[in-house]
Amino acid sequence: MADVVTEGTAGRRTRSLRAEEALKALSVEPDSPERLRRVLEQALVFAGATLAAVYTPSEDGELLCLVECAGVPRTVYGLRDGYTPSGRSPLAEARRTGRAVWLGPEQLADRAESRRAPSWDFSLAVLPAEDDGGCLLAVSERPGGFDAEDRVCLELVAEKVAYPAPAAAAEGGELPVNAFSLAMDTGRVEVGDGLLGLFGIGPQQFDGRVETLLGLTVPEDLPSLMSVVEADHMSIGDRELEFRVLQPAGPPRWLRLRGRLLPGGEGRPARLVGTVADASTLRAEVTDVARVQRLAAALATAGTVRDVSQAVVTALRKPLRADRIALAELEHDRLVVTVLDPPEPESWPELWRLEWRTEWPDAPVRAMPTLAAALREGRARIWPAGTPLEPALADVGPGGLAVLPLPAGGRMAGACLIGWDTPHEFGPDERALLTASAGLAGQALMRAHAFDAEHELVGMLQRQLLPRRLPRLPGAEAVARYLPTTAGLEVGGDWYDVIPLPDNHVALVIGDVQGHSAAAATLMGQMRTALRAYAAEGHPPDVVVHHANRLLMDMETDLFATCCYVDIDLEEGTGWCVRAGHLPPVLRRPDGGTEIAEAEGGPPLGVMRQADFPMSPLGLTPGSIVALTTDGLVESAEDDIDTGMERLARELARSDPAHLGLVADALLVGARRNDDIALLLLRYDGMAVRPLRESWTVWRVPEAVGHARRFTRRTLRAWGVPQRDADTVLLVVSELVTNALVHTDGRVRLDLTLVNHRVRVAVADASPRTPVKPTSLSWEATGGRGILLVEAMSAAWGTVPVSGGKQVWSEIAASD
């Protein structure tokens, strides 16, 4: 299809014309049962219906029986297989009056025969058919129901509705070669000779019992067949499914059954009549009712949101021959992905990879305005190859993209994104399948939410407490994964963090709070915040952990926490590790060798007030990987922690360090989800440009500022900084050192750094008070101008806490 398929305002003005053309273009034989289903699918495509069905009078005229339907299963709306023509149902009213019946939610709620529906948040239309006294029934879940254009489209569909005579013999006649007629009361079945050939038996071997044919089918397919041949499980309409029969040699043969139930009358049993054909000889169509049936059956047993998502992906990707498919829930303004296929991060857009915080990413809807518009409209949208889209969507389907909003319960439950790499032609068959699947998936998502609402609350809480994204690091890359437990519904206390520190240092933190409860999650959030704050103050690693231990003891909680804190100097490739009852890091060297770090440990946090937390050195060379994890990944009922750590080291040795995200995913494969799992990896690459650094201790003597200026001048000359830039640096040094000597007591230190043609001046003192920039100065003022002068001369300046004091810094751009 060359043009974009959309259902906007302009599209609605021409929908009836397009519906009329589509109905005329149907290439199916007029008397084929498949034709009726194709006609009904046009109601899904052009009238926005979620269900379209045909009811016709039974042979004795005592019932209006369902003979065919398409879309969402009728049971979702409480619709029955049959209605009496003399009743108060909308079907009976439309047949008696010969006029269309249009009912909204309020009118449906007032009708007694509609009270079987689970809710009345839908609209219903019934239109008399042209031929045999039957009726077209359609359901819409959109607010306002069917609009004027929808009604015109439904009228066109009703004109084309006609159900052919069943593929069964007349009384006393012979059946067509592939036809059957099954008596529902006795199980006796009449079959054509060609049908027996499909089952691999001859007429002399067949005893007329349906059990004989069922015995030749593959056991896994028997439940679906039994749902057809047992009257207690019958659902008239959509009687189409595929099954396998055993062969004397070779793999089983796929067959396709099509048929419908003929209600019995006085002295006549109900019969199931239809045909069986070799599925391999039939055209494989994405609108196959059997596929929708299998999706509905899979969704009926899906208990969690993940189960629902997997069922949808399995049902759609292969029939549509899609290259990638994602199903996501709508959580406020974010699209939280539940299943991706393929699951590798590299197969998805860069924006998605930036938001990869847990097992799957969650991308902001505001970054994808086209998707946001599709969700507001609530209609399937399709964009062929070459359509200009925002990068977050264009990279999902460069050869074509389909977006299926998933409506349920009067709101939007989520969306399904389907993408193709090569140019893909979109036809009405695919649109019908997508529409039907969207309705099924949306309803199933709502049911899954009711089943695991507490699990979803746990996941949302964890996402809020964990870092939204990891920072970019100079000379290193970090990735993290977090998997909540699947055994139970309580939230755990595992956490991780990556904290950038001054002078190209970085702190890696991983920890685990005792227990699985809201209290554990709350304490986890408090400990993560405390460790980040202590690290930002400039304390060494052992002091950071000691302060966190003292804080946890003062909180007087019954819970304790374990923690591993690693401070890495990205310039030198050295690090210090502090353990508080936690697992040590695992190191992978560039040559592939791995080792469990020999890091001495202290007790868990919150156990002893007077506890020692010794620091252990780590040495890294470019290409090394540091792996930190919690015990959920390495401990299980079968293996102790030592065995699990050795297994982790072996798997890390086999990994490819060039793709750190894939390394993390591979380490989680086969993880036993009996406990939360947090995993943090850092690959040290080494800095391409190392800063030049010099320091000077400023003694409190009368010539202190002059000494600092002479030290600065010598350093800048050695670094080759031009004289005009050096004068600016000297002026800033004078002001900052003077302020520190005048307004503070104790030691003062001057640090100079040159990197990427920027000179950084940092003056540290023992006072925690931040210098205050005056809002105004009178001509009589004798102070306060120094900080204004620093601001004017600097490209950037600021202050940070450092070990009980502060550091005031300024950056000056130097010439090349």
Automatic annotation (TrEMBL):
Gene3D superfamilies from the UniProt entry: 3.30.450.40, Histidine kinase-like ATPase, C-terminal domain, PAS domain, PPM-type phosphatase domain
UniProt-listed InterPro entries: Bact_Sigma-Reg, GAF, GAF-like_dom_sf, HATPase_C_sf, HATPase_dom, PAS-assoc_C, PAS-like_dom_sf, PAS_fold_3
TM segment ranges: none
Location of the PAC domain: 239-291
Keywords: Hydrolase
Coiled coil: none
SUPFAM superfamilies with a match to the protein in the record: ATPase domain of HSP90 chaperone/DNA topoisomerase II/histidine kinase, GAF domain-like, PP2C-like, PYP-like sensor domain (PAS domain)
Name under which the protein is recorded: SpoIIE family protein phosphatase
One Pfam family in the UniProt entry: HATPase_c_2
